[in-house]
Amino acid sequence: MLRLGPLVAVAVFVLIPTIEVAGAQQPAATPPAEDYVRAHYTKYEYRIPMRDGKRLFTAVYVPKDGAGGPYPFLMDRTPYSVGPYGEDQYPKNLGPSDEFEKSGYIFVYQDVRGRWMSEDDFVEMRPHIDEKKGPQDVDDASDTYDTIEFLLKHVANNNGKVGIWGISYPGFYTSASIIDSHPALVAASPQAPMTDLFRGDDSYHGGAFMLSANFGFYAPFFHPQENPMHPVPTVPYDFGTPDSYEFYLRAGNVANLDKQTLNGANWLFNDQVKHDTYDDYWKARDLSQYMKNVHCAVLVVGGWFDAEDLMGPYRTFNAIGKFNKETPTTLVEGPWVHGGWARGDGSHLGDVDFNAKTAAYFRESIQFPFFEHYLKGKGAAQAKAIVFETGTNVWRRFDTWPPKAATAKTLYFHTDGKLSFDPPEETKSEDTYVSDPNHPVPFVGYTTDTVPQRYMVDDQRFASYRPDVLVYETEPLKEDVTIAGPITPHLKIASSGTDSDFDVKLIDVYPENYPDPDPSGVGKRVMDAPPLHMGGYQQLLRGEPFRAKFRNSMEKPEALTPGKEADIDFEMPDLFHTFRRGHRIMVQVQSSWFPLTDRNPQTFTDIPTAQAEDFKKATEEVFHEKEAASGVEVLVMPQP
Description:
With 640 residues, the protein is α+β, with helices and mostly antiparallel strands. The protein has two domains: 33-196 and 285-398, Rossmann fold, CATH 3.40.50; 407-518 and 528-637, Jelly Rolls, CATH 2.60.120.260. Helices cover 16% and strands 25% of the residues. It has helices spanning 36-40, 98-101, 140-154, 169-177, 211-218, 244-251, 254-262, 267-274, 280-283, 312-323, 358-376, 461-464; strands at residues 41-49, 55-63, 71-78, 106-111, 158-167, 185-191, 204-205, 208-209, 297-303, 329-334, 348-349, 352-353, 385-389, 394-398, 407-413, 419-420, 430-435, 470-473, 481-495, 503-509, 538-544, 566-569, 572-579, 584-590, 618-623, 631-637. The strands form five sheets. The chain has a ten-stranded mixed β-sheet, sandwiched between helices. Strands 15, 16, 17, 19, 22, 23, 25 and 26 form an eight-stranded antiparallel β-sheet that branches. The two termini are 40 Å apart.
């Protein structure tokens, strides 16, 4: 995720009271482009002592042109290694993007506690300690505070200001770092921050385990490193088949998967599986509840189509606003996958074009000016919300998010698969389908052994053809409909089982005469692929599962009573999208989404250890009648 160079075999650890910036060490000739960092920065390595005596490995890159300072610090704290190690070993790039390397910053990279070259034991999303009673009460807020104290005293030619940024797990560390923030920390950008893993980020969505993504991450990659100088290589897991649907179905339950493939040795994966309710393990790791005393400006960044940490940016942004009324905070959302704003140009995803270089625009016109303003006093502050409107493909700025002008309306289900903003008038009306956990609905219409990032906007026609997927669709729109904010399904259901999932998908259906793309489009299609036809394309915009046993509490699951009506109400992450005139709005409802999520056996049982006989067919009813109306609530913007 971050642009880190390869590890090397030798490391030099130096603890120097004061650093003299070597302003006279200029190369005799212009080096090749890949040696820019070596030519223009001097690297120092430290083991910085924390208040409890543990030392955290930190690499510092100081501009060689000392006459250009003083410089602000720009820091990244990561569990993914700050290599290459050794004071004579340099990475190819520094900072969040290319703009920073030549602008004058002191770059700081730190291995977090218990990872790679840093001391102590690693704790997954180490819980924040709100009331610290002594030097042994440490967390990532205190580690950042102690690091800043050290840097200010021991790194020469600094201007006394610190910024911090990070994506995904480093985004979590960025968020953790700004709680009770150090006075010198003046700007922070948590990007796709892991915030609450059970409630919508990496691990669980709506109580359903995000199976394929979590196994794919923990199985080959996130394991302890006993010797950072000779790390265990990351080897892709061999599924034995190109079809993950077949692999996970054959494995049976999640406990079998762990036993058969990981031998129970990966405690991180095991923790995700065994904590399958919103228990104290997850509650302590919900960082949003601790977002207090944030005294620095914050730029929260997320992607509309982030398959990993979609909820984290909203929870972080809202929590900072709740507890820190005076803190300058900006939310940025673009049409990006996980970390997609940090690489590439962001002009398209899968088959969908955005007709704008959105990622390049973010890096040059939002992120860089943010740090320049708060760390160097240049330019102006940002708007409260800078968001990309998909459908029309334009950037918008608002002084609140969601926008004040957006009003709540419900897209109601009707007989014969109709969908409209008019509530149903029928006195008795429902749709039924049979959900079979042994033949679950796939989450993509093609063979894959991973979670393709493009699935978040993929064509859903493959699903609409299945008898176990309900489809509701508007007439072609006579005018644009723009939604902005969270999406809230309200379902009235009954099931013959004692538990079931209800997966809801919001879809933009293109007109049948929508023009085909230019076949020469860069990065869009492979040479031997069939022609892409966008007429009738059913573009997924937002989809989320919800496990019915959590309908009243995420902490205390309750069985469904077979045949008895129940309410399924939940919130899906925000979206900013315009359904264009001539398009249709579609909602699909199903009870499996495999192997994106684990299978619900549809019996009230311990799902990770469910046996083959527990997986049973269930008849699902979704009501759409006057006294039991089902639909999806959205926030609709007024049209100009």
